[in-house]
C-alpha cells in the first residue's frame, strides 16, 4: 500500500514525521535507488527504501508475556553450564524476547518477557518503585513479633531492607507461609532477610508484578499480557 515517506519513516522508528521531512530534503532518503522528494509515496512492502544508504527493515512488533518460571531453571536464554533456561519454554514465539529482571535458580513464579527495552528498563529501575509480591514458605512457625521485625526492616550487607508489606498467611505443623511485597529487589533479598530472623526459605514464588498477576499459570506456561496490564506498567513513575 502506498504511503507518504514521512509516515513510513515514522512508523519504522527512524524519525518523527517532521524530522523525516528534513531527512528527505537533505537527500538522505532514496526509493529504489532514486533520491526521494517531499510528498513522495512508496510501498514499504515492495519498494527499496534507504536512509543514509541503509535499507529500511520493518521493526518487530512489541510483544509482552507473563511466564511462570519453574524452579531449577535459569533466568537467561543461554547457560554455559548447560542448565535449563527459559529459552526451553519459549521456542514457539517467533520474536526474540528477553526476561525483565530475574528470579533465582531456586525461585519460581512470575517473570515478564518482552522485546520492549524501554518498558523493561522502566520495570527494573528502582525509581519506578514497581511492587513485586511473593508467597514464601519458610522453615518454622513465624510469630507476630518476627513479622513486625521484618516490617521494620532487616539490615543486609550494611543496608536496611524494608519491604512494602509483610503478612503471615498460614501456619502449618512445622512451617509457615508469608506474603511479602517489595519495591526494590536486591539479589536474594528475601532469602537473606528471612535467614536473619531464623526462618530459612523452603519455597519462594513471585505471584505479582504491579498489576500483572501469576493467576492460573502453571510452571513452564506463558500468556500474552492484556492491553490493560501493559498500560498499567507504562503508567508507573
Overview of the structural elements:
With 237 residues, the protein is α+β, with helices and mostly antiparallel strands. It folds into 2 domains: 3-55, RNA-binding S4 domain (Structural Genomics Hypothetical 15.5 Kd Protein In mrcA-pckA Intergenic Region, Chain A, Roll), CATH 3.10.290; 64-235, Pseudouridine synthase. It is built from 6 helices and 17 strands. Strands 7, 8, 9, 10, 13, 14, 15, 16 and 17 form a 9-stranded mixed β-sheet that branches. Helix 1 packs across helix 2 (17-25). The mean pLDDT is 92. One of its GO terms (cellular component) is cytosol. Belongs to the pseudouridine synthase RsuA family. It is an enzyme of class 5 (isomerase). This is Pseudouridine synthase. Residues 3-66 form the RNA-binding S4 domain.
Total of helices: 6
Query: So what's the overall shape?
Result: elongated
Percentage beta strand: 25-35%
How far from one another are the termini?
Answer: 39 Å
- Return residue spans where pLDDT drops below 50 for at least 5 consecutive residues: none
- Average predicted confidence as pLDDT: 92
Estimated structural class:
alpha+beta
The CATH homologous superfamily of the largest domain is named Pseudouridine synthase
CATH class of the largest domain: Alpha Beta
Assign the CATH architecture of the largest domain.
2-Layer Sandwich
CATH topology of the largest domain: Pseudouridine synthase
In total, the number of strands is 17
- The figure for the number of domains is 2
Largest sheet: 9 strands, mixed
Radius of gyration: 24 Å
Residue share in helix: 10-25%
**Secondary-structure element string:** EHHEEEEEEEEHEHEEEEHEEEH
Amino acid at each position: 500500500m502506498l504511503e507518504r515517506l514521512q509516515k513510513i519513516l515514522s512508523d519504522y522508528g527512524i524519525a518523527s514525521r517532521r524530522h523525516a521531512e528534513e531527512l528527505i530534503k537533505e537527500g538522505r532518503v532514496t526509493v529504489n535507488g532514486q533520491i526521494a522528494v517531499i510528498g513522495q509515496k512508496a510501498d514499504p512492502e515492495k519498494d527499496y527504501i534507504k536512509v543514509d544508504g541503509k535499507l529500511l527493515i520493518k521493526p518487530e512488533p512489541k510483544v509482552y508475556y507473563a511466564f511462570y518460571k519453574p524452579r531449577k531453571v535459569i533466568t537467561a536464554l543461554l547457560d554455559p553450564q548447560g542448565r535449563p533456561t527459559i529459552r526451553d519454554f519459549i521456542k514457539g514465539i517467533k520474536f526474540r524476547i528477553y526476561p525483565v529482571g530475574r528470579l533465582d535458580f531456586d525461585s519460581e513464579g512470575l517473570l515478564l518477557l518482552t522485546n520492549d527495552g524501554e518498558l523493561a528498563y522502566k520495570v527494573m529501575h528502582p525509581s519506578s518503585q514497581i511492587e513485586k509480591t511473593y508467597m514464601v514458605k519458610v522453615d518454622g512457625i513465624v510469630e507476630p513479633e518476627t513479622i513486625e521485625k521484618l516490617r521494620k526492616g532487616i539490615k543486609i550487607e550494611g543496608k536496611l531492607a524494608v519491604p512494602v508489606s509483610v503478612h503471615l498467611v498460614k501456619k502449618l505443623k512445622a512451617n509457615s507461609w508469608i506474603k511479602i511485597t517489595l519495591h526494590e529487589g536486591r539479589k536474594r533479598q528475601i532469602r537473606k532477610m528471612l535467614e536473619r530472623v531464623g526462618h530459612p526459605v523452603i519455597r519462594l514464588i513471585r505471584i505479582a508484578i504491579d498489576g500483572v498477576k501469576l493467576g492460573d499459570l502453571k510452571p513452564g506456561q506463558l500468556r500474552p499480557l492484556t492491553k490493560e496490564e501493559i498500560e498499567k506498567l507504562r503508567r508507573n513513575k
